[in-house]
Every structure is written in C-alpha cells, then in structure tokens.
Write a structure and sequence with these properties.
There is one protein chain. The chain contains eight helices and seven strands, in the order H-H-H-H-E-E-H-H-H-H-E-E-E-E-E. By secondary structure, the protein is of the alpha+beta class.
C-alpha cells in the first residue's frame, strides 16, 4: 500500500526547490510554513487513504465503453467528488475564478502524491489543471468567464487533444484543421486518438483543448493553434 513521503517532499520543496526562502521573503503573501505543512500532510493522507485503495480496483475493472458511454471503475466517480469537495482541484487556480492561488510548486507536490497513489486517477486532474493554466494565461475574457470557474471548481474537467493516427505525437505532422464560421467560432475537422480522460462519467461537461491548423497556417509547429471545444 502506498504511503506518501510527506516529510521528504516538504524538505525538498522548502530547501531544494526554494520554497522556504520565498516564504521568508513574503513572495507568497500570508502563506507560511505551518499552512504549507498542513496542506502537504492532508494531501498525503488523501493520497494514501482515499486514492491508493482504488488503484487495484481501477487496474482490475478498468473503464467500460458501452453504447457510447464510458463508465469508470467502481468508486472512482465518488473519489473524484470527495477530491473536488476537499478543494484540491482549486489549489493553484486563479483566485478571481474561485481558486486558492497557491504556488504552482505546492500543487505539483500534491499531484506527485496523487499520481503515485494511482496515476490512472491523478492524470485526469493534472490535465484539468493544465487547461486552467492555459485559459488563465491565454484565453479571451469571454472564454474565461464561461469556462474557468467550472474548471477550477472541478465541475468540469479538461483534456489536451494532440495525438492523431498518422502523426502520433509529432506536432509537425498534425493534420486537424479549423475553419472559421464567421461569428468568431470555428469548425474542427480531423481525427484525434488516445485522448487521456477524453470521455468519462466524472463530470457532465469535458472541456477539450484541441490542436489544429487554420486554413492559412504555415507548415510545421508554428502553424498550430489551440481551440476550446
């Protein structure tokens, strides 16, 4: 059974990754060592006591696709509900959209514990947090207003759509194309495969960040744009 190495992670964060000097300098506002220790301890407890026991269940049952509906292993949907109710999805999310605004390195440390306990579970929230960061840094205010709060809270989950049958993960070989409709939206044509958490029963809506090319895009990686579907 997995036991999160909380003390080792805390030491590495503070004295190797530079969190303690940053805390001492007030870079993260009122955040102090006591709160950091409490967050890491609870993240470790959740990983060890809540996530890890479902690793075997997920391994033995897997996800089931039937009639175009994906059902995750027994107990996983309930685990996700407890995870978002604990505020873990919002850990490093922007405060203006309901996040806690805590340092990214603290979120990464917590993700390390959840992924170590059961990577098949932890990788889903990892992708959602990536979607949150992408939208927060690069999306229009309209898209932020419509999607960010639900992604931060965990009401929605996010994915990243890169891989294609003829390209694998070779960005330069992507063929998916995006054609403007004329009202600010686009229609996406092409095929994506192997999309992690591309379909599941955790949330009612899944926000897909899709890599595709505009009609006038240059060849190679510089011609790729990112679309929210």
């Amino acid at each position: 059974m997995y036991g999160a190495p909380v003390e080792d992670i805390a030491f590495t964060l503070k004295h190797v990754a530079g969190l303690k000097p940053a805390l001492d300098a007030g870079i993260f506002g009122d955040l102090g060592e006591d709160l950091v220790d409490a967050i890491l301890a609870e993240a470790g407890r959740f990983a060890s006591e809540e996530v890890a026991p479902l690793y075997k269940v997920g391994d033995e049952h897997g996800a089931v696709l039937k009639d175009a509906v994906v059902t995750t292993p027994p107990g996983w949907k309930q685990l996700y509900r407890r995870w978002i109710e604990g505020g873990w999805n919002a850990l490093s999310g922007p405060e203006e959209y309901g996040g806690q605004g805590l340092p990214t390195m603290l979120g990464v440390a917590a993700l390390e514990m959840w992924n170590s306990a059961a990577m098949a579970f932890g990788i889903g929230p990892t992708l959602t947090m990536g979607a949150v960061e992408a939208l927060d840094k690069h999306a229009s205010e309209e898209l932020k207003a419509k999607y960010l709060a639900k992604l931060v809270s965990g009401e929605s989950m996010g994915t990243m759509n890169l891989t294609e049958p003829q390209a694998g993960s070779d960005l330069a070989a992507l063929r998916a194309r995006a054609e403007p409709v004329g009202d600010g939206t686009y229609r996406i044509f092409g095929q994506k495969i192997f999309i992690t958490y591309g379909e599941h029963d955790f949330t009612d809506n899944i926000v897909h960040l899709v890599l595709a090319r505009l009609p006038d895009a240059p060849a190679g990686t510089r011609g790729i744009s990112l679309f929210l579907v």
